[in-house]
Amino acid sequence: MGKAGKLSRYIFTVIVMFISWIMLTSTFRKDELVAGFIVSLLVAIGSFEYLTEHGLGHFSPKRILYLLIYSPYYIWQILLANFDVAYRVVSPSMPIKPGFVIIKTNLKTDSGKLALANSITMTPGTLTIDAKNDEILIHWIYVKDETIEGATREVGTPFEKYLKEIFG
Which residues on adjacent β-strands are paired with residue 57? Predict the structure, then answer.
């Protein structure tokens, strides 16, 4: 896949930023969508050259399909985590076991690793602290497994199986 032209890269950046805006705001109100689109247009002006080399070439049918599958899965994981954290807050008998864990990722691209780190952070009960090479340091509200393999299986793998198809 060769380097795309500036317009292709700009349009791709606007689209990705706007989709990210929608996912982060979780709303389809007209004023929110207009604001998000304007912000995406403006931010993309100064950032598209740093964010993509392939532009609209990223939109392969396979990637779009996996993105369409990932989006509701991601939202579902956020909802489950919200209920889990809320239940831990209102129920003193529900244990917490906070701690730091390291997970390993098989994602090769920086954008894939960024998407994984953000997916983890946006899910209540987990927070990405640092990412270097193939390791991500996470603070977890209830550490189920302290081993790298176990933490990766619990925290990273559920997101990564989709993200590797989207980001390569």
Answer: none
∠ CA 85-89-92, rounded to 5°: 125
Q: What is the pLDDT of residues 109-138, one digit of tens each?
A: 888 999 999 999 999 999 999 999 999 999
pLDDT band with cut points at 50, 70 and 90 for residue 57: low
Q: What is the dihedral of CA 102, 168, 73, 124, to 10 degrees?
A: 30
Distance, in Å, from the CA atom of 155 to the CA atom of 145, rounded to the nearest integer, reads 10
Give the domains, in start order, of the chain with CATH numbers.
Answer: 6-59 (no CATH), 93-167 (3.30.70)
Residue 159: enclosing H or E segment and its boundaries?
Answer: helix 157-167
Q: Residue 103 in 3-state DSSP?
A: strand
